[in-house]
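S.,

Sequence below, as promised.
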Amino acid sequence: MKTHKNDVTKVEHATKLFKEIDETYKPDLDKIDEALVQKWWNEQRFFDTNMASIDRRAIRVIKPGILNHNEGPDFMHAEIEIDGKLHIGDVEIHVRSSEWYAHKHHLNSRYNRVIVHAVLFNDDFNLRTRLQNGKRVPTLELLKWVAVDTGDLYDDTNDPTTDGLCRVTGKQLNIETLKGVFESLGRERFLEKTESMRLLRTRLDFEQLLYEGIMEALGYERNSKALRELAQHVPFADLDQKSELEIQAMLFGVAGLLPSQREKPLSPEVTDNPSIVALEELWRASEYAELPLRMTAARWRFTGRPLNYPTRRIAAMSQLIHHCQGSLMMYFLPICEKAVTADTPKALRTIEKELRTLLMLEPTGYWETHSNFGTGGTQKAGLIGNARAVDIIINKILPIAYIWAVEAESQKLQEAILRLYSTGSKSTGNKIIRRVDEQIFNETQQMRDLKPTAKIEQGVIRLYKNYCADWLCDLCPILEHDAVLSEER
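The prediction came back faster than expected:
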């Protein structure tokens, strides 16, 4: 066991060199089954429709095909362009590319209509997959193109409905035991989330991973996927050394949200505003302006509160990137490192407050008073509010900092980040937390009796997703740990 002083010294040294730490991460594929990869393919959960096979042939999926529940290839009647030529046929899905030969598909004529072998991870040396008839088809490694929500690679973000009576409903609870159950589940969810994020480390450096994660968190439910897609179209490295206005121009332009890109023109009173004129000029001077338009205004949702409009979120990210001076990781990581020597809950809460302060920057320029181009109503409100800052810290910054600690081989920093997570502020809630609240608590025993933290809330979410949603009542951790006092067993 390394001494505390040596560990801190190692972390400080690693921090200075962290951009050079770029090990190739080999994911634990035993935790992923083929059904999950089939789901990604069926839903086309990829950040670009223009992909490339491992032998560098252009792949464009027009139709993923129809899921086959019988013997044979996983998807039938797919339509895929390969090097610009349309192919119609089947698609076989595997977790590893080597499974094609391990399952002896190369000896089975049933697979001769396969046009693409789609795999999560390429662990083989064969650039093309051989069919029984001797033909070879491209192998597409999906991990390079995955655009699913970080932290939710293993579960669905939808909230499935459950009907019927929960065995805990109406029962007397042992609050202290129940608190321990939720804290344990919360730790499991955090570690599961970091493992899922590490899958993305096979193709992303830490800066891009954090950039995409924050963009996704800024989007709430309506615009999270669009903001992540925007971050993938405009990589973090392309925004380095740019002014805040230049960053805004590039992001708004690629997003298709500038006034000049609108189908319905805005009034001259709006477009003649000096800030908008400057943005338009910077966009026209950008290298991205010469590329085909990747996103349009139709991709975005402007419903709900004006403070949450995607235009304000893009402005927030632009401001954050400008303030971080070339490194988002070095903007947040040194604050996280303070937890190594923090030995009280109060000290840990102070660190979380510092992280929130880094996120909750005061709006400047046009976005002090606007929610969209030509639309006011913000009253100089912050571009990132307290609740959104807490969500970003718990779901993005701390998991990614933990991954950094793992790769820096600092056990002390890993433990410190878990302590930060354990004392993290609770959120404003969501539909899953409210559902569980209604399901197991009552007027005499309420969720607030647990003194909820972020960790407890994450445990509540894990309980619902991993047990309640699938009706695994016999495995319910609340019952297994005797947190119900009056339960007849």
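The longest strand covers residues 85-96.

Coffee later?
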